[in-house]
Amino acid sequence: MSDKHTVTVTVTVNGQVYTGDCEPRMTLADFLRHECGLTGTHLGCEHGVCGACTVLLDDVAARSCLTFAVQADGARITTVEGLAEGEQLNTLQKSFQEHHGLQCGFCTSGMLMCATELLRENPNPTETEVREGISGVLCRCTGYDSIVKSVMAAAGDQRDAVSEAGSAR
Amino acid sequence: MTTTAEPQETKYTGKSQQRIEDPRLLTGHGTYIDDITVPRMIEGAVLRSPVAHARITRIDVSKAAELPGVFAVITGNDLVEFAGEQPVIWSVIPEQRIARAHALATDTVRWVGQGVAAVAAVDRYVAEDALELIEVDYEPLPVVADLEQALAPDAPKLYEDWPDNISGSMTFPAGDADAAFAEADVVVGASFRHHAGYGCSIETRGCIANWDVFAGKLDMWLGTQAPNLARDLLAQVLSLPVDKIRVRTPDLGGGFGLKFDFYPDEIIAAILSRRTKRPVKLLEDRQESFVSSSRARDMRHDFEMALRSDGTIIGLRGTAYAVLGGALGTVGSGPPWASVLACMGPYKIPNQELTLKAVMTNRSPYGSYRGWGMPKANIVHERLIEFAARKLGMSRIDLRRMNFPTPEEFPYFSGAAFTYDSGRYADCLDLATSAVNERGWNVRQREGREAGRSIGIGYGFHTEVGAFGPSRVLNMVGLDHSGFDEVRIRMDSTGKVTVLSGQSAMGQGTHTTYAQLAADGLGVPIEDVTIVTGDTESCPYTGYGTGGSRAATLGGAAIVNASGRLKSKILRIGAELLEANPDDLEISDGRVSVRGAADASVSTADIGYSAYRMLNGRLPESETPTLEEIDVFDPANMTTSYGCTALLVEVDRQTGAVTLLDCLQAHDAGVIINPLLADGQLAGGLAQAFGGGLFEEFVYDEDGQINTASFMDYLLPSATDIPPFHFYHQETPAPHIPGGMKGLGEAGTIAGVSVVASAIDDALSDLGVAVTEFPMTPPRLLELIRAAQSAGVTA
Ligand code: FES
Ligand code: FES
């Protein structure tokens, strides 16, 4: 509406710069979905509990439904669309496919972002640490066990990749 | 029985094939309802009643209508101009009073959350602003907040012209229950209460309606498990011909039965669209979902079981109370009815008297949730058999085993309605108990107890009625819909395959399992198969929808049948090209060859070219062009899969908190198409049941207000609440389903509630606690523990 106060927000999402005008009350989730066209970030509750909307905001996992777009102005954001390597799934995504870590896929974006942060901070997690690490993202489909297996296996694959790279040097 | 075309090869069926759906969903490239934008689209929002029972004396929408950005505001009176009452497709109780309501209330509201008015605006933010400007005056009416209040002799009535609040009642007799109870050595009974919860897909419901009167079409995107049903019901409510309606389904972020039902929102969006001449998106937000999506589970079962002293069950009787809402939902009293029909479970019980009473309250409409009544049936038989074992001093395992029908006794009629097709129940029970041993649970329990911890092992045996169901039987028992499934399978001019199905993909991996069946049925690589679902204009008609464990059983059977016939045609064309006899040919990996002489071969691309483009000299004169088969599969009977679940828990006697340590299930769903996906279905269902068994509850106050309308208060289990899972399969194929599948989508939800109770009881066996209420929250369990402790002290 023309009489409404708007602000200009600029963010870098998955390496691409986006600038858009929005009302100050627009959430980061809505900005990503509507202004940037990145609908991979999902909304399951819009009150900060389900974790489906999790993105990496300057490398830290954040709930985009509880963040206003203006708060993210100038930030570097990674969403689920930024995980694949070229046309290949990354290690974590591959592991989710292999271990059936997703069914409907709706929580999956949040799970992947959350697990990305988890594995960066703790490349060698125990099962309990994985369960605790992903406990902020709710999944209604899988019963979690397959997600835990996916994350554990991805951790192993990432370690293998690192040691391979090391020995090749 | 339909003729069976067994797949010749099982290169894929039975294998843990990775899902073809995944790369899209893992990269954020899925398309869910809120990801869809159609040109000129605006957005809607619904004003919902803040009170549970009241007459509407005034609605003033003028301020809302004036808000810039608002396109239309409608009330119930505007809606009735175009729409009839919301449909009820299940009328299971003869002469039941069916309370119907319009999509927006016209004069009286009967639950918190009932739609009163709706807005279409430039976006959702403005639409919600406008809702706040609508003025409504309510004249309060006395509230019937719960079942006990509804049944009280002086209860206020929801419907003035009814004698009471009972919508209907019916009894299923078998044998002579009174005589059985009179001669019984032991009788056990209890009142079981499962409180309200819901399917709670992480994606809420939504639709985009485009009702264009100039185009003469209603085009709808709808997050539904039943697109064909939705189209028929849109036609019914809006008095439109079906051919003028198209329903498309995007990716579903979970369904769980909740998205089977047909909601007022679909009608509201359609009318907003007609009013504004714009497509209107209407999404439910999370908070609304607690009052606007189907409430489920809410029932009380007062049941008792009669046994002889040797453990033989001779009778089961009782009354089940369905806590219906202020009006009936799409499925009426269907799930409560199923809870009664299935409450004998896997046991032979010659004498039964099973009564269902459907009761109206000022709660939101009752509807579908995965398991559809059967989780509560399971509570009845699994709790009672354990109470009986205690009273008889028998092993709970032995008591179960001795009351199963033997494999030779199948098909077995269970007494009320269902005939179980086949089964090896005792084998399955043994598979579970030996797995419990193998995993060392008995040792863990003993050692834990020695260390002063309250460790319990729970058992539960479940039956799951699937392949739902023979159309004429469903009609006879009160369903205004059918149960068959239709599939269309096509090989194109390049020899690739497309399967069109009316089933909905909601995360269960239907596209992958269907591709596995079609690839095996035709002898082509799985990469050559594309599955298409989700459009009533191009996909076949399916009876019912995706629910009742139908996708693998009925859709799967139709694929087996259709691909069998299509393969015969492919071989006949191949025979012409190879100058051979069709009987000597085989297809493997997309090549047709003479059996034993692989060098003489043609590809499916050659076959496709011959059937669509270069017919001359290549397509036998007797064959019609194209390669396409349709199969309509209407089952002769339902299927009954079954399983035995075991659960290891620890109870904290100080807090009443229950920790789930480990879980396993031995399961038989006939032929398993994809073990990886099957285990996923079982695990997901169990997790939902554990939520219902321990955490999830709609809590109402005496005014009928819901106190749990956010994820802060309605507690979905998280990864730290749910144990690891281990699954063990045995396969007893369904004799009447081509392919032999029995279905397993609901197994977990059916099995998982009673087993929580069994495990808690076992952990507290020294106290003699008997869990009968769900969810068994820490305060409730603490109360049981304290009561048992003080009873122990006084004794
Ligand atoms: S949508 Fe952000 S936490 Fe649920
Ligand atoms: S995969 Fe559906 S909610 Fe997690």
From TrEMBL, chain A:
Tree of life domain: Bacteria
PROSITE patterns (UniProt xref): 2FE2S_FER_1, 2FE2S_FER_2
Record key words, sorted: 2Fe-2S, Iron, Iron-sulfur, Metal-binding, Oxidoreductase
Keyword Iron tagged: yes
Domain 2Fe-2S ferredoxin-type: 7-83
Iron keyword on record: yes
Name of the protein in question: (2Fe-2S)-binding protein
From TrEMBL, chain B:
UniProt feature, compositional bias: Polar residues: 1-17
SUPFAM superfamilies membership: CO dehydrogenase molybdoprotein N-domain-like, Molybdenum cofactor-binding domain
Annotated segments matching region Disordered: 1-20
The keyword DNA repair belongs to this UniProt entry's keyword annotation: no
Location of the Aldehyde oxidase/xanthine dehydrogenase a/b hammerhead domain: 27-142
Keywords linked to the UniProt accession: Molybdenum, Oxidoreductase
Protein name: Molybdopterin-dependent oxidoreductase
Native source species: Prauserella halophila
Taxonomic lineage: Bacteria, Bacillati, Actinomycetota, Actinomycetes, Pseudonocardiales
